[in-house]
Amino acid sequence: MxxxxxxxxxxxxxGRLKAYxxxxxxxxxxxxxxxxxxxxxxxxxxxxxxxxxxxxxxDIVHPLNxxxxxxxxxxxxxxxxxxxxxxSSAM
Length: 91
Hints:
Blueprint: E1 3-10, E2 17-25, E3 29-38, E4 43-46, E5 49-51, E6 57-59, H1 66-85
């Protein structure tokens, strides 16, 4: 499985939320509304989630292993940095 496209949409709200992202896998599966968030030490990616009846949140989609999570996060943060510096390539 390969990431074939990443689009990053910066937000101007300020705060810890820096951007939303969309990722396409193998030109045939898309995930929207990932969030790029400024953590205490570095940027990280939050998966799309939904509020449950009890008020907690649950991811709608997520990687099943740390290698895939790292791959997705690295590609999104890389594209975010390009967009912020004005060098976006839109994979």
